[in-house]
Amino acid sequence: MSAISFRIEQRVSQGGARAGVLTTPHGAIQTPAFVPVGTKANVKGILPTALPALGAQVVLANTYHLYLQPGEQIVKDAGGLAKFMNWTGPTMTDSGGFQVFSLGAAFGKTISKFIKADAPQEEALVTFDESVASQHGQLAIIDDEGVSFTSHLDGSLHRFTPERSVEIQHALGADMFFAFDECTSPTAPYEYQREAMKRTHRWATRSLKAHRQNLEAGKQQALFGIVQGGRFEDLRRESAREIASLGFDGIGIGGSFSKEDMRGALQAAVSELPEELPKHFLGIGEPGDILEGVANGMDLFDCVAPTRIGRHGSIYTKRGVIHLKGEQYRSDFSPLDSELDVGLTMSHTSGFTKAYVAHLIRSGEMLGSIICSMHNMGFILNLVDGARQAILDGRFDTYRADFIRDYYHG
Which domains are present in the chain? Predict the structure, then answer.
């Protein structure tokens, strides 16, 4: 029996958008929902106790980082991730698979989850090779059994396998966690995307077996499998069928895309997945991409973007992102976003002006980054909460179209 349950409350008449309730051992999540990323058991710049007031229902932490620092045993001894960070709601952890991507094939390169269609192709590291392994700066080497990597903290050597990833995540104790996978570069060719997908499927089977062998963890934690396949629709379809057949508690859509191919790859995967399972779109935080995911049946989203851009003085507004270091904001005494409906989710930052926060950012004051981060988190949480209400009210298509018009073309 799964540690979680999922109930769909409302579907749009045409399309895949739906509103639901995901019930976990530590509370219910109204979906669709954005999941703030607390990489090291903290959402940067935001107190855990402030997150609920911004609209957060669940947080996600990073297995790789918590394994290295402070170590999963310390988190376990503290009573698990939630107690460790003084958070009372549901929690999630990733598998460390994205670090295989970011420290391996992407290390030292300007590659992200998305590329432009005409971006130059780069060769991806595919298997263990002694000559490559000895190169200075190469942090992660993938083989069929797992990944060997050196710590970005002190250079010490470590190894993750599907079984080890599950063991660590059992110790971290999140309500929901992800099977170990290989997240490929969006520039990787078809042949390697297929190879990595097959490896992810084998690792999914091993992750599931390791989870099921821990009967106590199975009562308290749910395991999500991850669909891979890059931007290729046939691979996404094949991966979705395989992952769906294994019996996971939920499904994650992982990997990387080109912006132009995201919709097709996502729709290809979703068409093969059981409707009754909760679906998480991993690493997606651009407002338009979130709404695209909602429109195609995604229930959960996570991304570091709201606090990452906030730390550098950029904020979301209804008319798009603005950069407060710009000269025009030195004497702009208007609210951070004068068009937002000031409700509970924005009340923490609604009294500050662009000029004040621009001054803090330019002065290197910590408070500037905190205000921007809180504003951005409230903005994204409010956007997704609004999408949920629009689904319930039968007006999601209008809600989405209005937001896209103002945000990208306003």
Answer: 5-303 (3.20.20.105), 310-409 (no CATH)
